[in-house]
Amino acid sequence: MTHVFTIVSCNYLAEARVLMDSVKEFLPEARRTVFFIDDWKGKFDPAKEDFECVAAWTTSMPRYCHFAFAYSPGEFCFALKPFCARYLFEHTEADQLIYADSDMLFLARPTALLETLARHPIVLTPHKLRPAERTEHFNIVRAGAFNAGFFALSRSAQANDFIAWWGKQMTEPGNLEQDWFFDQGWLDLVPSYFSDTAILRHPGYNVAFWNLVERRVARGAALEDEETKRPKDQETALQSAGLTGRREWRVRFGGEEFELVLYHFSLFDHRHPERMTGEVD
Fold it and tell me: Which residue, 105, 77, 74, is CA-closest to 4?
């Protein structure tokens, strides 16, 4: 059984609903869970949601209350990822876990991910797939090679070892620092420490503002006619089409076309829906 989960505070319920609706559409056999870091009483009725709602305090995170006050809501969600993964392996019959940030949207069935996950216990996605300009190298080195907003695990001893190791890093004083991009920087060590880690290099996964410079995103037919246009055109492509015609979205990378499976609306600002992302430092 495949299980998809995310972690949010109650004010991100709308984002979680959109993500889970997209999972339901393109991976209907998957069980879906949203972990909440704060109390939902008086805010919404979890019984009326079509996904499972779990209070994050029920996970095995040590000193939960301490970290709830020590971290910002975002940092707390970052730190909880390994503990929520452990919870699902221990409390469900899931064979495969897929984590996605709540600001993500599935636009097609994740076939390549499922095939990779059937062969490997840990699957990560890189921020970029080819060398960038010198200044961009510095940004990627600082942010980390892999994006922690999306990862997948299959039930195995190595996945359990990874969860335990990552969880320890998240609860060690000083380890969840912005210089490491919080939980994300630690993932650079995973391919070395866990030998069967797979790097999913499909250009249609975890497409976001940081890799639009190397990936042309548009509707399928538009790619053939407009592939010579500058990547700036991509910034309004998804928004202008709304959520209709999802299966038509394609990605051109390295002269080839791929299905756009998962888009990451990182730093998306609801006040400016015409932009794909907000200001980036």
Answer: 105
Closest CA to 264 of 99, 150, 152, 151: 150
Q: What is the pLDDT of residues 146-186, one digit of tens each?
A: 999 999 999 999 999 999 999 999 988 766 565 666 889 89
User: Rounded to whole angstroms, how far apart are CA atoms 273 and 281?
Assistant: 19
Q: pLDDT tens-digit profile of 48-98? A: 999 999 999 999 999 999 999 988 999 999 999 999 999 999 999 999 999
Compute the CA torsion angle 189, 1, 51, 90 (nearest 10 deg): -60
The pTM (predicted TM-score) of the whole model is 0.88
Find out whether 191 and 241 touch, Cβ atoms under 8 Å: no
Q: How far is CA 45 from CA 13, 26, 60, in A?
A: 11, 25, 25
